[in-house]
Amino acid sequence: MPPWSQNSGPEEEEWAEGLKLPARRKYAKRIVKGRAVELEAAAGNGVVAEIFPNQAAVRLDTCGTGSSAGAGRTDSLTAGGARKLCGYRMSALAFGGNVRERSPVCVGDRVLVAGDVIVGRCARRNRLIRSAPNSRDPLLHVIAANIDCLVVVSAALEPEFSPGIVDRFLVAASSQAIAPLLCVNKTDLLSPGPPKAWAHYPEAGVPVVECSARSGSGAEALAALLRGKTVAFCGHSGVGKTSLLRRLLGDEALGRVGELSGATGMGRHTTTGAVMLPGAGGSAWIDTPGIMNFSLVGVERSALLSHFPELARAAAACAEGCLHDAEPACALRALPRFPSYRQIRASL
Ligand SMILES: Nc1nc2c(ncn2[C@@H]2O[C@H](COP(=O)(O)OP(=O)(O)O)[C@@H](O)[C@H]2O)c(=O)[nH]1
Ligand SMILES: [Mg+2]
Ligand SMILES: [Zn+2]
Known about the structure:
Blueprint: H1 10-17, E1 37-39, E2 46-52, E3 55-60, E4 83-88, H2 92-96, E5 100-101, E6 110-114, E7 117-122, E8 127-131, E9 139-145, E10 149-155, H3 163-175, E11 179-185, E12 208-210, H4 219-226, E13 230-234, H5 241-263, E14 275-278, E15 284-287, H6 309-314, H7 338-347
Parallel strand pairs: 1-7, 4-7, 5-9, 10-11, 10-13, 11-12, 13-15
Antiparallel strand pairs: 2-3, 2-6, 3-4, 6-7, 8-9, 14-15
Helix pairs in contact: 3-7
Zinc ion binds at residues 315, 318, 322, 324, 327, 330-332.
């Protein structure tokens, strides 16, 4: 086992495995009758903060019931909102056309809660999605929805910067029109000198923040870019997503989630998905467990180049009919993200 993965808990493995949820008694299936309905964005009264097998923690707009008139999107995400554990109606097909979703709601979903049941899900303005591994039928895993910014976290070292997964996440964000940010963590481990493997991302339209969750350097710059937004932190296991969120929000914010889960008998360590942490000024930052394989869904081969804007610009110099693949004269060959582009293209 590589040294950087020593801290990845069993929950990450379970989650990355996809569907193997522990069959423990406390997850006994709650039968909720009826089908949930899809609602307009304004019709919800809460936001899904965490998913458990057959249940979801919802942060309600107000502590009472019903939606407060005029409550905006960010109002519902303030730290004060009460978390409530709800069942949900099974209705994946009603929501998703003919491809099943792993769970009918995901973190970031705006939902309508009646009593302690989610009875409807609001239309999503975007979603971060992958295909769930280890399933025979097509099954989608929606990691998070309705996000303003995707922070792709990578480590400068331990583990070494990995363009493959970074570019996959960036394509996923681009295909959903979600603003990207590349966060290179663990800069405390860098020694000055060698060129940085992430230096070319700004010219690809991706802002880069270098930081260290350990020393705190760069944390304030990162927080300033994300304040007030709904943000998902994604990336390989062990790159420091949880450490960064702890640095940005304090132990208390992460601890509070554990406490609340504990109070309902749902220990933090049984979580198999993402968790939305409330921050100051309407911030809602989502920690996601480490991911082993992120396979893109819904990205057409023919549209892939448009998600690599610097490659798309350079392609103007190619001969007509160039497939930007193995052609020796292809103008994209010398560009840093060309290998990534080819690899992803081959996988679609
Ligand atoms: N040197 C160094 N180690 C870090 C930094 N951030 C996180 N780590 C370590 O990297 C490991 C994985 O961190 P974690 O936050 O669990 O990563 P996650 O899987 O992405 O949530 C832990 O041992 C952390 O202590 C950093 O900025 N510098
Ligand atoms: Mg983590
Ligand atoms: Zn070409």
